[in-house]
Write a structure and sequence with these properties.
The chain has helices at about 25-30, 55-65, 75-90, 160-175, 220-230, 240-245, 275-290, and strands at about 5-10, 15, 35, 40-45, 50, 95-100, 115-125, 135-145, 180-185, 190, 195-200, 205, 235, 250-255, 260-265, 270, 300-304. The chain is α+β, with helices and mostly antiparallel strands. Strands 8, 9, 10, 11, 12, 13, 14, 15 and 16 form a nine-stranded mixed sheet that branches. Strands 1, 2, 3, 4, 5, 6, 7 and 17 form an eight-stranded antiparallel sheet that branches. The longest helix is centred in the first third of the chain and has 14 residues, at about 55-65.
């Protein structure tokens, strides 16, 4: 059976993804000056739906504003492009990656006068942690701190920001852990390299707040809303590192990671290494909402 070639959307046209090429010296490859999003599509049983597409597109446009990137496409055009590409690629589930970049090979840090291109990929995508989703992941509290807004704008989902994530993740994996946990400049828990983090203590859901140098994740926001709708108390606040070590439960959230429980932080095993009841409940609620099984949150779905 011949595998179907995936298309990609580039500057208004769907083309074969292997034809979407740029020069090696493209500014965003050399300097990390791109912005991007990660979005999930799910099979609901009543059709394929993209989860919180409008919120992702809005954040994408806000990232462009922060970096003064002049996109040639607005909200409606980008929204339709994502939907059309998922349909064109015949996806029943998967991952969508909008990416805006300076498509200019002239040497120099300045972006003045440099053209911006927008690329969107859509592909099948499964477990972000490579089969460890059910088992959970082990984490090392990184020696590297999370960037803050005095260094780079943490609210922009920008390519260069993730060098901070890469070095922390490499450190953790280099000593046998699955993932890193970064702390803020004042020593509080911030987030994972590509995930927000939650802890559960005495049946209360606790997560670092906006002042903790975090990206305000859309999955994070979904879980907070889902938790509150089911009567789970939620606190957004500064989280001490030692609260991870004494937590009843802990888990990551993110578009790619979805909800993945954390079974160990440094040397401390959490809940005997098992996903706890609050984690399981929220994972089920999230899955139901994303797959159209919760009418209360149907506005989060965009059917293609």
């Amino acid at each position: 059976m011949v595998e179907k070639k995936l298309g990609a959307w580039l500057d208004g046209n769907i083309i074969d993804s292997d034809k979407a090429t740029v020069p090696i010296l493209t500014h965003s490859m050399q300097y990390g000056s791109g912005i991007f999003e990660g979005i999930r599509a799910y099979d609901t049983g009543k059709g394929v739906s993209i989860f919180r597409l409008d919120d992702h597109i809005e954040r994408f446009l806000n990232s462009a504003k922060i970096y003064s990137m002049k996109l040639n496409y607005g909200f409606k055009e980008l929204r339709e492009a994502c939907m059309n590409l998922v349909k064109s690629n015949g996806l029943t589930y998967g991952y969508i990656r909008p990416f805006a970049f300076y498509n200019d090979a002239r040497i120099g840090v300045s972006t003045e006068g440099k053209a911006v291109s927008v690329f969107i990929a859509a592909m099948p995508f499964g477990d972000y942690f490579g089969g460890k989703h059910d088992k959970g992941v082990s984490c090392k509290i990184s020696s590297w701190q999370r960037i803050n807004s005095s260094i780079l704008p943490v609210e922009a989902k920008a390519s260069g920001n993730y060098l901070n994530s890469i070095i922390a993740s490499n450190e953790a994996r280099g000593v046998g852990f699955d993932e890193a946990i970064l702390t803020s400049s004042d020593g509080y828990v911030a987030e994972g390299p590509g995930e927000n983090i939650f802890v559960v203590k005495d049946e209360k859901l606790i997560t670092p707040g906006p002042g903790s140098d975090i990206l305000m994740g859309i999955t994070r926001d979904s879980l907070i809303k889902l938790a509150k709708s089911s009567g789970i108390e939620v606190e957004e606040r500064a989280v001490h590192k030692e609260e991870l070590l004494t937590a009843d439960e802990a888990f990551f959230s993110g578009t790619a990671a979805e909800i993945t429980h954390i079974y160990k932080v440094d040397g401390a095993v959490i809940n005997d290494g098992l996903a706890g009841p609050v984690t399981k409940k929220l994972a089920q609620m999230y899955g139901d909402a994303a797959r159209g099984k919760n009418e209360k949150f149907k506005e989060w779905l965009t059917f293609v």
